[in-house]
Amino acid sequence: MKLLLLNIKELLQVRENPPSKVAGKDMATLPTLKNAWLLVQEGKIKNYGSMDALPAIEGFKTIDCKGKIVLPAWCDSHTHLVYAGNREQEFVDRIKGHSYQEIAANGGGILNSAKKLQETTEEALYNQSAKRLEEVMRLGTGAIEIKSGYGLTTAAEMKMLRVAKKLATNYPIAVKTTFLGAHAVPAEYKDNKEGYMDLVCGEMLEKISEANLADFVDIFCEDGYFTVADTERLLEAAKKHGLLPKIHVNQFNAIGGVAAGVKYNALSVDHLEVLTAADIDALTGSETMPVALPSCSYFLSIPYTPGRDLIEAGLPLALATDYNPGSTPSGNMNFVVATACIKMKLTPEEAINAATINGAYAMGLSETHGTITKGKVANLIITKPIPSYGFLPYAFGSNCIESVIIKGKLIS
Ligand code: NIG
Ligand code: FE
């Protein structure tokens, strides 16, 4: 089916020969086309141009976009969308003064989610996760990364990844999967972290690669979780299975995880709420994308990633949700973009670049996603009539999205 979008007030992120990512000063530029049309055919962006020179196109369904802005659907490169139940009680405990780390140390946190997930059937886990995926698609997400990490046994980690793969099959959204067995040390290994690392780097990695369940590997490199030595050991083992790293680093402490990630060619290093000059040095000249997760900072009341420092150092930056039951129970990329502007002082242009082209890069999808380019997948957000694209982060509490097109299909 052909879909023709007409009278688009402004078409954003239009790039004829797109780079794989944008960095530093270039992040301030968001190329756009005013008063435009765009043709979708067979799930791809077939063509676009100015309304002043609209060619005759036959056999299409038209959508009038008068007063509306069209942009690439969000690319959310960091989520834990497959999980069981919720952690509302821990949320209330935190309001009452207990810290996130304190709750985790008392058996809550990731271990709480792992217990729930192990007790949940694969079918129930799929149904809960599918609901979340449908919600984020309606909120404009067109490509998403989903991690394991709430299984913490070989069987439960594989169950999570199978659910993510099934979502990929049943929905038009692009899904990349990441093996995060090293998310927390399970209670059974409390005094034997090495034993758990043996399991993660051995059996889990082997079975998951054999079943082709993961595109990437991840580890929570943080005081109280896994060390830089654990990280290097896992990344070395994962390299043999051809899995590129995308790792959790510097959420609470800077212990050298950024440099370890860069050393192993990580596609991304994520969180970075605590960032040192040495971390910025390590990233300089690398191909690793720094990823900020501002709705996690918002929910936990922890510092925001110093995105301005990264951009001013000439580095790129991507934005993602971190959708998970503990630190960020929200998969809303619109809120992420707004929060990046409000709290991290990114301009709307920088934030939109970070949530589209750079998000696509951070999950290995730059060839097909993240920009308005002929031949790329037709993943589009059509806004309600709004005054300008700056209105998207400005009106942070409003839903400015009228409809979403994913792989050429109208979602809402
Ligand atoms: O990215 N920091 C590690 N993992 C998740 C949250 C884990 C949880 O609390 O369930 C995150 O914030
Ligand atoms: Fe995370």
Task: Please explain how this structure is put together.
This protein has 412 residues and is of the alpha/beta class. The protein folds into two domains: 3-72 and 373-410, Urease, subunit C, domain 1, CATH 2.30.40.10; 75-361, Metal-dependent hydrolases (TIM Barrel, Alpha-Beta Barrel). It is 35% helix and 23% strand. The protein is built from 15 helices and 16 strands. The chain has helices at 88-95, 100-105, 110-118, 122-138, 154-170, 193-210, 228-240, 257-263, 277-283, 294-300, 307-312, 333-344, 348-355, 357-361, 391-394, and strands at residues 2-12, 32-41, 44-50, 60-64, 68-72, 74-76, 141-147, 174-182, 216-221, 244-249, 268-271, 289-292, 318-319, 380-385, 401-406, 409-410. The strands form two sheets. Strands 1, 2, 3, 4, 5, 14, 15 and 16 form an eight-stranded mixed β-sheet that branches. The protein has an eight-stranded parallel β-sheet with strand order 6-7-8-9-10-11-12-13. Helix 4 crosses helix 5 (154-170). The longest helix has 18 residues, at 193-210. The protein is globular, with a radius of gyration of 21 Å. The relative contact order is 0.18. The mean pLDDT is 97. It binds N-(iminomethyl)-L-glutamic acid and fe (iii) ion. Residues 78, 80, 248, 322, 324 line the site of fe (iii) ion.
